[in-house]
Amino acid sequence: MRLLSIILLLLSTVPGLARAQAIETMTFNGEPLDSKSVPILGTAWVLYASGPIDLDAGKRLNQFLTSQRIPANSYIYLNSPGGSLVGGMNLGRIIRQHNLRTDVGSRNSDRHLGHAVAPGQCYSACALAFLGGEFRFLRRDSRYGVHRFAFPKASARPG
Fold this sequence. Notes:
Helix content: 25-40%
Number of strands: 8
CATH superfamily: 2-enoyl-CoA Hydratase, Chain A, domain 1
CATH topology: 2-enoyl-CoA Hydratase, Chain A, domain 1
């Protein structure tokens, strides 16, 4: 008990140490298409999901979609190194439930190039979220990676 008290005291007094322990989570933002695109693409939004996928990423995306009244057939660009396996599956279910179209990319801050999307990455659990898209795209120079899951102990196989 005394050791726990010392650790908590240390975490509260050393600047930045407690923040270093914070877990990053996926963030969501987006915007409606510009008025020039509406006659062609309708009222769809362009959404950006960025960061590691945590267990509650799907819940936060669902809240964002509902609160902003984002229409079906909107585009969501995924940019994630992966994260929670279950979180990735849940995120994919929310993407499918809202009929979103998935792509791999990140928000491009250099808007004068004529587009707001830059290459991105989608690895591990992100690959499962990506598969939830009604239609799926992969931008040039973006990376999509799937790996094999492993268990710590080998299972006994019948010979």
